[in-house]
C-alpha cells in the first residue's frame, strides 16, 4: 500500500496544481484537474454526488470493511478529528468509498461506519462505478488472493474538499489527527462564497 500511496503522490506533483497560499499540513492540491467528484450510492440506496455536500467540508477516503489495519486506523483518526472539532464537527462530512463492493454490502457498510461515528457515510456502486470513482481520484486498488479468500491493496490517502466542493488538500495516512483537524479548521474558516 505504501507503494500505491507514493505513486499517487508523485502523480500529484506532475500535474502542478496551483497553490492556494494556505499553510496546510497536508498536500495543497487546490486547482487540481482530478478528484473533482463521484456519483455513487449510499448505504440507504440513495444516489450521491459531491454536490450533495455543498456547505460542508468533506473528508473522503477509499477503503474496505475487512481491511485489517489501515482503514480502521483512518476511521479512528477521523472520529478523533470529529471530537477535536467539537461543535464545528457538524460542518464536516466524512465519506468512505468502498473498493470492495463484492463483499461490502450496504448493511455491512452502515454497521461498520456507525461503529466509528454516527455521521460517517459510506458509498458503494457497481465494480465499474467504483473503478470510475477511483480513477477520478487516481486511487490504486487491486484484489490480492489470500488462500481461499482475498484482501484489497489500495491507496491510503484522505481528500479534503472545501464548502464549495472544490478539492483542496490530500492528507497522508502517516499524518496525525492534529494535522487533519488543523487543515479542516482552515477550510471551515474560509469564506463560503
TrEMBL record:
**Family listed:** Belongs to the SCO1/2 family.
Which taxonomic lineage does the organism of this UniProt entry have? Bacteria, Pseudomonadati, Pseudomonadota, Betaproteobacteria, Burkholderiales
Q: Which organism is it from?
A: Hydrogenophaga bisanensis
Q: Which PANTHER family match?
A: ELECTRON TRANSPORT PROTIN SCO1/SENC FAMILY MEMBER, LINALOOL DEHYDRATASE_ISOMERASE DOMAIN-CONTAINING PROTEIN
The alphabetical list of record keywords is:
Copper
User: What protein does this entry describe?
Assistant: SCO family protein
UniProt domain Thioredoxin: residue ranges: 29-189
Keyword Cytoplasm assigned to the entry: answer is no
Q: Which InterPro entries match?
A: SCO1/SenC, Thioredoxin-like_sf, Thioredoxin_domain
Q: Which residues form a coiled coil?
A: none
Any Pfam family matching the protein = SCO1-SenC
Amino acid at each position: 500500500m505504501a507503494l500505491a500511496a507514493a505513486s499517487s503522490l508523485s502523480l500529484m506533483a506532475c500535474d502542478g496544481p496551483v497553490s492556494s497560499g494556505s499553510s496546510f499540513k497536508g498536500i495543497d492540491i487546490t486547482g487540481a484537474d482530478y478528484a473533482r467528484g463521484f456519483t455513487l450510492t449510499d448505504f440507504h440506496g440513495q444516489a450521491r454526488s459531491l454536490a450533495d455536500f455543498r456547505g460542508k467540508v468533506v473528508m473522503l477516503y477509499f477503503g474496505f470493511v475487512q481491511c485489517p489495519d489501515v482503514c480502521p486506523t483512518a476511521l479512528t483518526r477521523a472520529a478523533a478529528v470529529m471530537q477535536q472539532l467539537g461543535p464545528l464537527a457538524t460542518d464536516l462530512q466524512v465519506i468512505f468509498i468502498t473498493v470492495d463492493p463484492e463483499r461490502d454490502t450496504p448493511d455491512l457498510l452502515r454497521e461498520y461506519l456507525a461503529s466509528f461515528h454516527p455521521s460517517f457515510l459510506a458509498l458503494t456502486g457497481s465494480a465499474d462505478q467504483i473503478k470510475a470513482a477511483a480513477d477520478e481520484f487516481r486511487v490504486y486498488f487491486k484484489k490480492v488472493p489470500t488462500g481461499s479468500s482475498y484482501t484489497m491493496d489500495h491507496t491510503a490517502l484522505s481528500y479534503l474538499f472545501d464548502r464549495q466542493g472544490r478539492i483542496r488538500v490530500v492528507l497522508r495516512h502517516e499524518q496525525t489527527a492534529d494535522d487533519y483537524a488543523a487543515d479542516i479548521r482552515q477550510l471551515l474558516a474560509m469564506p463560503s462564497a
